[in-house]
C-alpha cells in the first residue's frame, strides 16, 4: 500500500476513516494520545476535523510530523483548505514538576529538604538509566561508568559553558582523562571540540525524555545519544532596483558521534550466519558472520554526512514568537501568562525524506527580508528522531 510507512503499530487509513466518520462531524476535535505513525491525525485532517496527537517516543512524533506535512501538500495541490500545526514538547515542564512540585503547606526548611531529596532521586534516576554507579568526593562528577566519570546537568537548565569549564578544571586538577556529560539541553554556541584540544576525552550526551518512563528504564530501552554538530550558513541576496533583499540557508554539515554497543563484543556474540547493525563513532556498521567459515565482515552503511539527516527546517525569524505559558497562583488559583525565556520554533521551510523520495534539498528557498538584525534557527532531525538546533545571528 502506498500509505504504508513500515511503522510497527500503523493502522490502515480506511479503518480510521470509518471510525472517525461514524463518531464525529466535520469541525469536531479528534484526539489520539498514542499517535504513533499519525494515521488518526492524517485522516482527521483530510476529513476536516480538528486534531490533537501525543506520543512518548520522539520517533513517533517525527514520523507524524513528516506525514502531516505531506497531507498539507496534497490538500494544497487539490485546492483544499488545511490547518497549520504546532509541535509542543512538554518534557521540560515535566522535568521542572519532578523536582519543584512541593506542597505549599510545608515550612521553608521542610521544602528545602524535600527539594534536596528530589534532586538526589533525579541524579540516581539518570545514573540508573545510564547504567552508571554513584560516586562521591567530586565537585562536578556524580557517577562512574566503567573507566569514565559522569557529570549530570540540572533538571531544568541547559548545560552552560561555565559548567563545562568547571568540569575541565576538575579533570586537570585530578588528572581525569575520560568523562561523560549528560544534559537535557545545551547552551547555544558551545564549542564541544575545545575539550579535545586540551587533551581530554569528554563525551557530551543528551538525556532522553524516556528516562521518566520506568518500564523503558527497567527494560534497558533508554538510549543516550551524543550531541551532534550542525553547520549552516545564510545566503544573502542584496536588494536591487525593484527587488527586495532575500535570504536563504544552506546546510553544510551535520556530524554525529553516536556509539551504541561494543563492536568487539557484538562480533564474539554473533552466531554463524547472523548479522547485526551497530553504531561506532558516528557510523552505522553492519556486522556479518559467515555461516561456513565464521569470518567476520563489516559494511559501513552511512557513506556521507547527509545519510544521517532525515529532516531539516528553517525559522527565518526565530525570536519573533515568545514561548508563553499560563501559571496558576497556588493561593488565588488565578492564572497569569508568563514568558519561559524561550522561543517557539516555527517551520517556515523544510525538506525531508519519504519512503518514495529519499532526495534531500540542502539549500532552502529564499525569503524576503528587511534591513536590521535577526536570528535564524536551523533544526535538523536525524534518522533516529533526535533533533539538533543552531541559531545564527544575521545583520542585513
Plain-language structure description:
The chain has 396 residues and is an alpha+beta fold. The chain has 4 domains: 65 residues, Vaccinia Virus protein VP39 (Rossmann fold), CATH 3.40.50; 135 residues, Trna Endonuclease, Chain: A, domain 1 (3-Layer(aba) Sandwich), CATH 3.40.1350; 115 residues, Immunoglobulin-like (Sandwich), CATH 2.60.40; 41 residues, no CATH class. The chain has 9 helices and 20 strands. The strands form 6 sheets. A 6-stranded mixed β-sheet has the order 3-4-5-6-7-8, with helices on one face. A 4-stranded antiparallel β-sheet has the order 17-14-19-20, with no helix packed on it. β3 and β4 form a beta hairpin. α1 packs across α2 and α2 packs parallel to α3. The model has no long low-confidence stretch (mean pLDDT 86).
Whole-number count of domains: 4
Q: Might you state the CATH topology name of the largest domain?
A: Trna Endonuclease, Chain: A, domain 1
Order of strands in the sheet with the most strands?
3-4-5-6-7-8
Q: What's the architecture of the largest domain in CATH terms?
A: 3-Layer(aba) Sandwich
| Tally of helical segments | 9
CATH class bucket of the largest domain: Alpha Beta
Could you spell the SSE succession in H and E letters? HEHEHHHEEEHEHEHEEEHEEEEEEEEEE
List segments where confidence is low: pLDDT < 50 over at least 5 consecutive residues: none
How can the largest sheet be summarized?
6 strands, mixed
Q: Estimate the strand proportion.
A: 25-35%
Radius of gyration from CA coordinates: 24 Å
Average pLDDT: 86
Quickly give the structural class: alpha+beta
The global form is globular
- What's the total count of β strands? 20
Helical content, roughly?
25-40%
Kindly report how far apart the N and C termini lie.
Answer: 48 Å
